Amino acid sequence: MTYPTARTVQDFTRHLADVRSRVAAAAERAGRAASEVRLLPVSKTVPEDRVRLAVQAGCHELGENKVQEAARKHRELADLDVSWSIIGHLQRNKARDVAAFATEFQALDSRRIAPDTARVRECFRLLRTLRDRARQTDPDLIGPGELSMGMSGDYEAAVEEGATVVRVGQTVFGQRATPDSYYWPPTSSRV
Ligand SMILES: *Cc1c(COP(=O)(O)O)cnc(C)c1O
Question: Which InterPro entries does the protein's record reference (predicted)?
Fold first, then answer.
């Protein structure tokens, strides 16, 4: 699958509208309200000038995977209304940096799964079951119990399986040059 690169505000507006309508359709198939699903555009590797266009097109929450890159963007785009989420593995020595500017941290599961859709869907289902169980047994610990699952290749399935947050990068911004293995240690994967 290739993802066209957004280079203008109009491109971003179109990509975002497309993702939102796909999220809405997936939610409807599952008997859910589209408003239950938060879209978190992931801007990693995208330079600041293009991130600005995305913000103009209405992205006010952005996800980043690397603390240094996120801190740099937070600084250089401080004039914009954006909250930053750090998604992925967090090194202990970076936790303080993240707390200084990010509004949210989403840890990454480390289950290796093929992007084979059926297996991915099973994992989504399992996560939802675990979340529901934790709500019963540890309601204080789990809080609102958001389920962040689904990326560009599988967010529609994730919404059908109960995701409350989808983290979508390439579908909004365009194809990334860096392989996913750069972001996830080879022994782990994501759901
Ligand atoms: C990059 C990344 C995403 C988004 O992936 P896309 O393929 O660009 O949609 C989602 N979650 C995490 C943790 C990521 O690092």
Answer: PLP-binding_barrel (IPR029066), PyrdxlP_homeostasis (IPR011078)
16 domain residue, yes or no: yes
Domain assignment of residue 184, yes or no: no
The DSSP output letter for 6 is: P
Tell me how far the alpha carbon of residue 93 lies from the centroid of ligand 1, in angstroms: 23
**In-domain check, residue 191:** no
The alpha carbon of 105 and the centre of ligand 1 are apart by a number of angstroms equal to 14
137 CA to centre of ligand 1 in angstroms: 30
Which range marks the domain in which residue 22 is found?
Answer: 9-175
Count of structural domains within the chain: 1
183 part of a folded domain: no
CATH number at residue 161: 3.20.20.10
Beta bridge partners of 154: none
Q: Look up tokens 């937070």; give the residue.
A: 74
Give the pTM. 0.91
Q: Is the beta carbon of 168 within 6 A of some atom in ligand 1?
A: yes
Each residue's pLDDT tens digit, 97-153: 888 889 888 877 655 565 888 889 999 999 999 999 988 898 888 888 899 999 999
Q: Is 183 in the pocket of ligand 1 (CB under 6 A)?
A: yes
